[in-house]
Amino acid sequence: MATLNRRKEESDAKPSGIDYGPVSRAIAWIMPWVFLALRRALIPTLCILALAVLFYLVPQSQDVLIGLAEYVAQDALIVWNWTGLASYLVSSILVSLAVWYCARLLCTVEAWLGMPMAWEVHHFGTRQAELGEAQKIPRDDVRVRKAIRWMPRAYGVGTLATTAGALAFAHLEPQWRASAGVLLVIVILGGPLLATVGLLRLLRHRAARPDRRGERQSFFRFGSIAQVITGFAVYACASFALVRSSSAWPVALLCAVWALLPGVLLYLLVTRRALVRYLFSWDLPQADDGLHFTEVIVQVVAFVVLGFAALAGLAAGPTVIIRGIGSAATVMLFLAAAVFFFCGIQLVLRWISRAVPGFTSLVAIILFLIASYFGREPLGKETLDPRDAPAIAGNGTVTPGPRIIVNAYGGGLRAAIFTAQVLALADDASCGEFGEHIQAMSGVSGGSLGIAVYLAARQELKPLRLWEGCVAGSDAHPLSTPLTDVVTEALVQDHLSPSIARMLSVDLLPLVPPQRGMAMLDSWNDALVGALKNAPPVRGDKAYAPRVTLAVRLGQLGGAILPPPRVYFNTTDADSGARRWFSNFSPNAESTSGGNVTALEWSGVTVGEAVLDSARFPVISPAGAFPPDYQREKVLPRRLVDGGYADNSGAQTLLDESRLWDTGSAPKVMLDINGNPPEAADDPYVTRVCRHKQPAPSHVPTSLLALLSARSAHALDGVVRLSRQIGLCAPGEASQACLHPVQFDLEKVYGVVTADDPHCDEVRNAQLAPLGWYTSSASSVMLRRSSDITVQQVCDLAGIRNCRVRSTTQ
């Protein structure tokens, strides 16, 4: 009995009896914030960190934000993406409100459970208003209540400040995108917040003590007013600096106005109770009140349902709508839905376990083990409904002149645009003569997509008298570029957003076939169909429906060229590391490499499916299964990944297959189309003119950098050996002297002659690796100008004399 009494006395001992050390006392004020951030509200904490890392530390994500309102220096104009801007604004507000409200519930629902025993915390089970005024509240209780009251507000405002600051940070001049740029963003965001805090203090003091007058009241009022004035003065100075350091003042002014939103949100969050009481006569709980789970069960169920519905909506949304929303807004919508969903799940788990530490983690571990045991790496099974292309009439004669061999490098959407534009511009400049000389084409990843879009558009539109009225070599007629306009419209799109939307929704579900590859394939094909409907020969014909798209059977792809060129779309076998390819000609025993047949049977495969297997960029698209219906056929599938793993140029396949396509005696011309800018270290022009200081070491790990460099070296080696095979380069001859690679000419595009030229920043941006299947407006203009400049070189290599190279974009 004495033992029980002693234990009861120990359990009733006050936490204040604990011996605190000097360090503990010094940091006691911050510990409730740390506890809430890393324990109670961990989900909102991770959301804010993800946004900050994505928008400030990933250079390619800044390209996406720049594309919302972009200054194109070459044309001195601003391209406004109003749909993307509106989507970014709405998604920023949604994710901020989601973080704030979920943090509020996670911090207040059954807050009395799980509190450290060392804190003197009481009364979280009742409303603060129910406590007697004379009852003294312990200091730890006050600290915890203050953290519970202000941390959710800080999280909501901080999330909106992160997204608003990211937009301003991205539109700074490149030399500002470092510590100075971050400091400027902090100042321009902090000014309105400082003014808002001063205004709230002034209103609170006036409401609490309306009849008191005196020196203290006057001093407090003066201090609050001074805080408001100081905040707006700081904001005005920072806005001026932002406008001066931005490429275009209208865009900077928009970013400055956007920076006011966090302050507005803070004001609404603090005054919302008075507003709700005024509009609806409702009394909301206080911000630091502890809530029972039964009081918020409706909100929790709504969170889980709405979060799941939002994720499902991202998965099922049409690609054209997702492209309009944009990648940045799509990611934020996913984060908002995920925060809602997981917040509801965590509150339910807490209620079930009564806040037993580790129970949520235990449930997550069990679910992970179940998914790992029953699941395997999901493979893409993307298919398009195959269509038959109309037959092309012709007399079967070969156009006299040299035969053109095309190999197109990989490099994402930028490589696809450059490849398609170079080929289409050469055709437009020669009134279609250029394409008739093509004998063989081989592409990898983005290069495969560029070849496919060019051939499909040409095959669809040439029988519709695409170049009717075109006079080759005549300056009397204005140069039109109908084929180039079609391929540009089809490819200069945000093809990344649909894939991101599926990857962050349905592809997160275990045991479900991934859909992000299908979303990308649909986006490519839908954009091509829309571009074909806007082509000059059929524009205005509402009954017109394109027949040759990426859904056409691969064996029928010929580009309206007689005889049809041999086309190769290269991929990589993930299990063996071997190079594989799809061709529009049926593979046979002669298609060999080292004794192993490497061509894949094209029967039943559409052009889009073959291109996707060639362009399965890591993470963005899953590994593909070939054949797609391997489960029905009960065979072990080949797992196909991006063709750039084995050879990023496509030249090695042309070399292996040369006995099949190199059947004539006509001279050969090779177009080595590399849709990637020269490496900065290897470009003497960039090094000589636009280099202000010695290049810093690459942040890419050496092991990965070596892998990428080796891939590039193998690609160049394949190009050199192919050129020697077809007689373009003699043994020992320098490759640059005989190959004449078709590549970005940054010197001619930008016209930079001095190191202090502002266009040097754009040259450096061009050196940045592209973000997969997204490209900005400035990049697309740079690509078009590069293609325009390259046309003369292409025509000269092909031996076409009557080739007009004057472009309307110059």
UniProtKB/TrEMBL annotation:
Keywords: Membrane, Transmembrane, Transmembrane helix
Transmembrane region(s): 41-58, 78-103, 154-172, 178-203, 224-243, 249-270, 291-314, 320-343, 355-374
InterPro entries given in the database record: Acyl_Trfase/lysoPLipase
Top-rank lineage group of the source organism: Bacteria
Name of the protein described by the UniProt record: PNPLA domain-containing protein
Organism: Paraburkholderia sabiae
